[in-house]
Design a protein that fits this description.
The chain has helices at 2-25, 30-54, 58-86, 94-113, 137-164, 168-198, 206-225, 237-241, 261-267, 284-295, 343-351, 355-365, 370-377, 381-395, 400-411; strands spanning 120-124, 127-131, 246-250, 256-259, 301-310, 313-325, 331-340. By secondary structure, it is of the alpha+beta class. The protein has a five-stranded antiparallel β-sheet. A two-stranded antiparallel sheet has the order 1-2. Strand 1 (120-124) and strand 2 form a beta hairpin. Helix 1 runs antiparallel to helix 2 and helix 11 crosses helix 15. The longest helix is centred in the middle third of the chain and has 31 residues, at 168-198.
Length: 414
Amino acid sequence: MNVIIVITSITLITHLYHGLFILYSNPKAILNRLYFLATVCITISAVCLVLANLAHQEDSVHLYFKIGLSTFAIYHAFCFHLTFIFTQEKRVNLLIILIPYLISSIIIIKNTFSSILFQQFIKIHNQWQYVLSNDNYLEYFIFLSFLISVGVICSIRFYLWSNKAKRKKVRIQSRFLTFATAATTIFVMLEFLILPFIFNYRNITLGVLWYLIIVFTTFYISMKYDFLIGKVNNINSEIFSNIDDLVILFDMDMRVLEMNKKTQNCLNEAIGNSLHVSSLVKEYFDLSEKIKKLKLYQLHLFTMKMHLYCENNTLLVDARFSLLKDKYNDEIGVLMSAKEVKEVMAIKNELNLTERQTVIINHLLTGKSAREIASLLSITERTVKAHITTIYNKLGINNRIELFNVIKEFSTRI
């Protein structure tokens, strides 16, 4: 017993540090917050269990059990909430999520004024054993039903998600979480339901074992399979930030995950939860259509010329897009690497093109038709065609293919 207590005490520090690490990795994510709160609750409950075993007075054992029982109840509510978010259950009613919080609150209030589990503790062979009272059997079974129900529901949800999730890493995480929740539920049933009534077991030691199962399982999948650790953490941020191209990493929903220093300086944008590719790219609709094909593996990668919103101006870039995967072959997101098309500015300076003519060249290079350019610039198609004729005359060319050739020639001079 003393060995288990020592191991648990050492584990407490590691578990709390791990909870803080998960919270720090993505403090704005509700999953990470819930995990941290669950970590705090289960740690307090385990501390109280250890202190209860070490206590010399029965009053102290009662006090530790009251605190431990209350935090254990709210821990189950956090776990229930975390499970439904992790398994991406969108159809669940908010009321279902609130029910465990309500039940745990009632348990805490009731337990504060009178013990709902054990009315008396007796020390036998230097170990505390509890005594069940006939007056609180109903409350006792209601409490156990709550714990077991939450454990069973969470185990089933994790098991189903381990077969349903698209990402291999998440499937592996779900299998480990299925084991942890199922094992702890079995230990709760053994300690409080089966052993007391069949084998007259009255110790309070198995709780330490299920605590160790939870700690080591969650710690292992965090370190081995990046459980609740941000995707971008898998990328060497220093190397990423110092790439000379304009680089943006965004997820499959087109939300920006990361951008390097050069891109941030160019776009004058800081990364935030609401930053979306649509606010950065002028040709967002065309880009989103190609990204859809990338998701469906109809394209492995693609390139396109497009305009990035750069403060009060737009910047023409030649961009390359590709899927970025982790070591489990799961998609992290889409990586954009782009270079500014400086050839147009060189042509403008050399041939004294107007701003309007320069803008039209940029649109021509992105594949826009005269009608589309007219719509974008709020001018007539006839005016656009007149500008195109003037541009071709100044460059000594006759069509758009020759325009691309001219751009290539200027690229060798820069």
